[in-house]
Amino acid sequence: QEIKQKIEKYNAKVTNCLLMKLNDDGTYTGFIKVHLKLRRPVTVPAGIRPQSIYDALKEVNLADMTDKRTSFYLPLDAIKQLHISSTTTVSEVIQGLLKKFMVVDNPQKFALFKEMRKDGQVLFQKLPLTEYPLYLRLLAGPDTDVLSFVLKENETGEVEWDAFSIPELQNFLMILDKEEKDKIQQVQRKYERFKQRLQQTL
């Protein structure tokens, strides 16, 4: 009964026909919009045509049709609308978004954030994988200025090293090796200059 009242209150504020619907089993369905703010390129199958309505209905995964891969940047701040259930988790939303864009990168590389505006400030909070985005939408109401969802690179907390490929990990090692050598040279130059000044003073 409480959920029913919340849904009725939510739907009364909707202006774009994207209503929430209560099911007989107590679950409900509705829409969320996710802003894609990805700074790094994503990996997609090479030479694959866009997914058609037929593919979607038949659940054809075009990414499985080729082993060739290419990388490109998704348009910054692209928006994708998803129709989900109250039982859909953050993890499933991330996987669904990657599938729609045919991104074959490991889902662990990405995280879903909720974006809130308070006192003129924009605040981001990373959502746990077990959270239910539609419930958060229901509580916040349909106004995206109050709450919106953002897909970003997973850069907070522990790095999920298993999510990276062998070439990527090897590249990280090369970068770390270069940084280490640069730091060593900086320290050596610092003490060399100090030594020269001491010798001049002597």
- SSE arrangement, N to C: HEEEHEEHEEHEH
Envelope shape: elongated
Please give the share of residues in helix: 25-40%
Count of beta strands = 8
Rg for CA atoms: 24 Å
* Global structural class: alpha+beta
By CATH, the architecture of the largest domain is named Roll
What's the pLDDT, averaged over the residues?
A: 83
Count of distinct structural domains = 2
How would you sum up the major sheet? 6 strands, mixed
- Figure out the total of helices: 5
Low-confidence stretches: 49-60
What distance separates the N and C termini?
A: 88 Å
CATH superfamily of the largest domain: Phosphatidylinositol 3-kinase Catalytic Subunit, Chain A, domain 1
CATH class of the largest domain: Alpha Beta
CATH topology of the largest domain: Ubiquitin-like (UB roll)
Strand content: 15-25%
GO molecular function: zinc ion binding
Organism: Leptosomus discolor (Madagascar cuckoo roller)
Pfam family, one: Nore1-SARAH
Protein name: Ras association domain-containing protein 5
Structure description:
This protein is of the alpha+beta class. It has two domains: 1-153, Roll (Ubiquitin-like (UB roll)), CATH 3.10.20; 161-201. It is 36% helix and 24% strand. It is built from five helices and eight strands. The chain has helices at 2-13, 53-57, 90-100, 133-140, 166-201; strands spanning 21-22, 28-36, 42-45, 69-72, 78-85, 110-118, 121-126, 147-153. The strands form two sheets. Strands 1, 2, 5, 6, 7 and 8 form a six-stranded mixed beta sheet that branches. It is elongated and about 90 Å long. The chain starts with a helix and ends with a helix. InterPro entries: RA_dom, RASSF1-6, RASSF5_RA, SARAH_dom, Ubiquitin-like_domsf. It comes from Leptosomus discolor. Residues 158-202 form the SARAH domain. This is Ras association domain-containing protein 5. It is found in: Cytoplasm, Cytoskeleton.
